[in-house]
Structure formats: C-alpha cells, structure tokens
Amino acid sequence: MTNKLRIVIADDERPARSFLKAILQNFEDVEIVGEAENGAEAIEIIKDTKPDLALLDLQMPEGNGIDVVKLLRKSQMPLVAFVTAYDEYAVRAFEVNAVDYLLKPVEKSRLRETLNRVRERLEQIDFQATEAANLKAAAAAYEANASVTMLERIPVRQREEILLIPVSEIASITADGELLHITNLQNKKYTINFRLKDIEARLDEKKFVRLSRGSIVNTDTIARIAPMPGGTYLISLKNGQEISSSRLQSRRLRDKLLKI
User: Fold this and answer.
1) What pLDDT is attached to residue 151?
2) For the whole model, what pTM was predicted?
3) Domains and their CATH numbers in the chain
4) How far apart are CA 136 and CA 144, in angstroms?
C-alpha cells in the first residue's frame, strides 16, 4: 500500500514499545520509521525521520513526552498522540486542546481511531501550525494542573530495619538496572528497588535536577561544574562524587543553574 503513515514510537520500557509495534504491524497502512527509549532520542529521531505521527510516552527519562513537544520547533512537529497510564490531568488537558492520547494498555480499536484521525488532519491545510499550537497549549495546561505529593523522606530497608532517609540530605540518586542507589551528604549509600522516573516525579524540581538518563542530583550539593567536550559537563558534588551530564540535560543545566 502506498502513502503509508510513517510513525515513531517513544517509550522507555521495551515491553511497551514491543506491544505497540505488534499492534501497528496488524495495519497495512503504517510504517514504523523509528523507536526511542527516552525524550532526547525521540527528538533526534523525529528530526531525522520527519514522521507523520509520534506516539510519545508521557513519562520518560531525559525528556518526557511534554518535553519533546516543547523542544521541537513548529516546522519539526509531527502529529502527536501521547501514550499514558490514566492521568486525569493529562486527559483533561489533551481533550480540551484536541490532542490525541492513548491510555495503557493500548487497545487495537482505539489505536485505529487515532490513525484515522491522523489521516484526516494530514489532509487539512496548515495542519502543522494548528497541531503545534494545540500541543503547546495542552503541555501548558497539563503542567499547570498536574500535582503530586512531594517526598520528604525515602524508606530504605536494611536487614530487619527500615531507615527513613530525609530527601533534604540526599546528594544524588543513580539508576543501575532495576535498582536505585541513593547517596547522602556524608557519602553513605543506600539501595532501593524503584524506577528513577517515578521517584523524580515526586522530588522538588527546584532542588533536584536530572543529569542523564540514569542520574539525578540535589542542586544544593553541587560544588563545581566543569565544561567537557561536546557541550556536556562534569559535576562535582560536595560529598566527593563526580557525575557527567548528557547533552540534553546539559542544556537544561545551563538554563537552570548557569544563568544569572
């Protein structure tokens, strides 16, 4: 079939990407042109492949689905459908601004509706400008209304005890597979089984900043920031840790900490 819809899938969980691919492969009028496991990859793949549609997970490391939309220029913006577990703020923001969304687990019939809607929009004159405006408005509405309970302490099991680690005393959190390593101001280390992106969503963004796909640091514990080749940084913490930033997060670091 000619005139296939060219689609990019972005989700940090491989099973979720595989599930979407399996459904899409049942449709003869689509072509999967790229896969991304984080927001930074999604931006680059969208720029390179210029898809008709991007299926973006709402929560991803190194730039979630909202971040991808905010960082793409209007001329680079494909049609977008956010994929998310139920989130009342997301649903409200997307419905009001006519942005499509898919709830996990995605149903084949619902995905077909999205694809049909995409074809209709592609036939409209200047659809890209309309889509970009709707996406920006939806992103702003979502961020304005979404609220989560901020963590004040993190429970850590050690042998038969449960320690409560105050968030204010955390210097860094780094991911290692399914485990998170928490390091405090005294350089003591604790390990929990949790996802980095889930704990990041419950940390004060004014205090904590993501440096890469696998690391978050407390900005109050940063002692020095050294520029590195390729526009990245080496961040030295007051407890002696050194953590490198990714290119995408380096741009955010500059905006958040390195401007007066």
Assistant:
1) 86
2) 0.62
3) 5-145 (3.40.50.2300), 153-257 (2.40.50.1020)
4) 12
